[in-house]
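RECORD TYPE: inverse folding
INPUT: structure tokens
STRUCTURE:
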């Protein structure tokens, strides 16, 4: 008999779900009763229900209370439980089991059972909907129902990562174990008033939403991604960004199914997809900020870029997302989730920006601690370039044109303002330079399907990386005019020392600003020299330093004049003999590059040993320099800094860069 009181009603689950839509609100925790560690509690609860049914003894499950709301004048109001979620979910699964086991498909029952839903996760909500409408085969009574469901073609792999769904599946198997032999279970649950509870509506007590949230604070907190997703879904509905779209095409469905399957299969971290989702969305927001497409004032742009770069989990990320950015996020998810990621593998070197696996992996999950670390500005620029190619050419993806495009972008972002000490900070290392790089790449992307044709025919408006763009245009003109030398240019620009900047190598082969002046046979030899002698840091040897001392320009053997400082203790000018490998990169861009050009051309015909052995000493060459050239071990163990007095009569081989006394150097006369 149904009991009524002023504040509470004694109802069965079947009567409650006929009376209301039961919606577990977004602030609730997941379905904890189904967790493995709560198996004893869960099974005892099921056994209590089972014994009550078998003995026809009424079992009251105590109070279940919450709010009742009516949205958009729906036919049924929504009951949102504050307390009782765990019991209601288990009862829902028990009724579902009885229906699927004993009855034929019934549209009316389907509709009623679909009144139970989860708002905490879209995946939980979709699972509940599919669970009701999809048929289940119970022919093999001993088979795990969970395994049957997981093997069904309607079950998304990503759903296994939803803690509520995992818990539901465990409970279904326990229900099957306890209730599979009970006949007429559906009738006992729906026609008899055996299993009941008191349901209480909070408004009767004047409880506010604020209190509702505070009371539920004991539950599991939503992750930053779950918060972002819920806030973004709310924003989508509020602004009607998806009005008229089919449900299957909507963000709310795809983010919990297809797109999460993509993340789970490729970029999960510690059995979670949240980090990768957050890093992807924050990167897309950053690039749109750089393009001026966010719903923020221009003066806020750099602040947002820096804040998001430092924290991919920024709590107010959703505030920056307008309709344009939302559509861009959806486009990018769709692009990446529908392609074979292997086609994005880059077969050439990215030098210091080389990812451990791929650029996509670097942006979404790589880092010493993905929860706190983030990919570099440069990685994000390359990822943006990759994305731009997919947007422009995804349906007509061509491996060659993709690699050509990424190669040009690599050369741009790899350029650095190197100094005489070999320090080479990244060109993209601040919000300002990120904005410049993103806008340049965006401009060039209109020609990404054939970037060399584009560069050779279309003026570039952006002033970012202006010098490198000039060089890329020269390469493009060469490739358009002499396509047979394309691979030769690629081999030269892949060199570890040159890193995409090949003007010096071209000049060694006669280039004077006119591509027709290039002597291709010489360029091939120059390419081999850089490959053999200057393609790794261990190629910086004393043999190279000694050979450089044999090179003359304008009658002087003074390549070391590219750097100086004064050593007061010894009253001499300090010089360097290439202390760091990257100093050579600085050197070939300096006023002293002619020394290195002569060395390279000599190396096309001879080895270091031959050059040293055949060198004829000028009569006026000081003896200290002769000794450095002749004596193979003299430079060993030194700092490669030397100090030369004004009269050039001797030199000190310094033991360190800044010796404090005269004993810090060995005098060579």
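DESIGNED SEQUENCE:
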């Amino acid at each position: 008999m149904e009991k009524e009181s002023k504040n509470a009603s004694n109802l069965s689950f079947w009567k409650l779900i006929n009376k209301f839509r039961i919606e577990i609100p977004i602030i609730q925790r997941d379905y904890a009763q189904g967790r493995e560690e709560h198996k004893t509690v869960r099974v005892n609860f099921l056994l209590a229900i089972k014994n009550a049914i078998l003995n026809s003894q009424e079992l009251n499950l105590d109070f279940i209370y919450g709010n009742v709301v009516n949205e958009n004048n729906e036919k049924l109001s929504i009951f949102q439980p504050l307390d009782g979620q765990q019991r209601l979910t288990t009862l829902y699964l028990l009724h579902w089991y009885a229906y699927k086991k004993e009855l034929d498909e019934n549209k009316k029952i389907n509709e009623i059972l679909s009144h139970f839903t989860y708002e905490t996760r879209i995946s939980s909500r979709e699972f509940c909907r599919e669970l009701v409408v999809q048929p289940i085969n119970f022919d093999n009574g001993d088979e795990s129902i969970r395994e049957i469901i997981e093997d069904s073609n309607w079950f998304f792999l990503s759903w296994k990562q939803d803690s509520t769904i995992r818990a539901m599946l465990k409970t279904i198997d326990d229900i099957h174990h306890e209730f599979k032999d009970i006949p007429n279970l559906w009738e006992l649950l729906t026609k008899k008033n055996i299993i009941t509870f008191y349901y209480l509506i909070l408004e009767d007590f004047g409880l506010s939403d604020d209190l509702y949230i505070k009371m539920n604070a004991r539950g599991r907190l939503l992750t930053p991604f779950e918060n972002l997703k819920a806030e973004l879904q709310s924003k989508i509905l509020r602004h009607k960004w998806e009005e008229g779209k089919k449900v299957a095409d909507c963000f709310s469905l795809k983010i919990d199914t297809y797109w999460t399957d993509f993340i789970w299969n490729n970029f999960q971290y510690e059995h979670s997809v949240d980090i990768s989702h957050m890093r992807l969305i924050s990167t897309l927001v950053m690039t749109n900020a750089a393009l001026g497409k966010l719903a923020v004032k221009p003066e806020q742009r750099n602040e947002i870029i820096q804040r998001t770069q430092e924290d991919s989990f920024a709590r107010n990320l959703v505030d920056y997302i307008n309709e344009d950015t939302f559509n861009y996020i959806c486009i990018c998810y769709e692009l990446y989730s529908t392609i074979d990621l292997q086609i994005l593998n880059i077969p050439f070197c990215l030098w210091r920006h080389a990812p451990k696996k791929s650029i996509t992996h670097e942006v979404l999950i790589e880092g010493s601690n993905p929860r706190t670390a983030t990919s570099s500005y440069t990685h994000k620029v390359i990822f943006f370039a990759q994305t731009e190619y997919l947007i422009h050419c995804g349906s007509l993806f061509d491996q060659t044109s993709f690699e050509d495009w990424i190669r040009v972008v690599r050369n741009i972002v790899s350029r650095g303002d190197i100094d005489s000490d070999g320090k080479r900070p990244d060109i993209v290392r601040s919000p300002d330079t990120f904005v410049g790089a993103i806008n340049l790449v965006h401009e060039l992307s209109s020609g990404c399907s054939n970037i060399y044709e584009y560069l050779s025919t279309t003026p570039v408006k952006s002033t970012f990386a202006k010098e490198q763009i000039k060089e890329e245009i020269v390469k493009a003109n060469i490739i358009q005019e002499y396509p047979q030398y394309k691979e030769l240019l690629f081999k030269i620009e892949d060199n570890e020392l040159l890193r995409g900047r090949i003007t010096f190598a071209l000049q060694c082969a006669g280039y004077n600003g006119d591509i027709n002046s290039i002597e291709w046979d010489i360029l091939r030899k120059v390419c081999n020299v850089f490959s053999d002698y200057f393609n790794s840091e261990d190629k910086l040897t004393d043999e190279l330093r000694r050979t450089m001392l044999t090179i003359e320009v304008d009658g002087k053997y003074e390549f070391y004049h590219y750097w100086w400082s004064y050593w007061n203790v010894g009253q001499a000018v300090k010089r360097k003999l290439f202390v760091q490998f990257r100093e050579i990169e600085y050197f070939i861009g300096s006023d002293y590059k002619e020394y290195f050009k002569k060395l390279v051309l000599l190396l096309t015909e001879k080895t270091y040993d031959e050059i040293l052995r055949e060198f004829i000493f000028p009569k006026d060459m000081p003896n200290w320099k002769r000794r450095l050239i002749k004596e193979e071990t003299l430079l060993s163990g030194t700092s490669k800094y030397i100090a030369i007095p004004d009269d050039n009569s001797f030199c000190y081989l310094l033991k360190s860069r800044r010796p404090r006394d005269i004993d810090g150097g060995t005098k060579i006369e």
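NOTES: The first strand starts at residue 8 and ends at 12.
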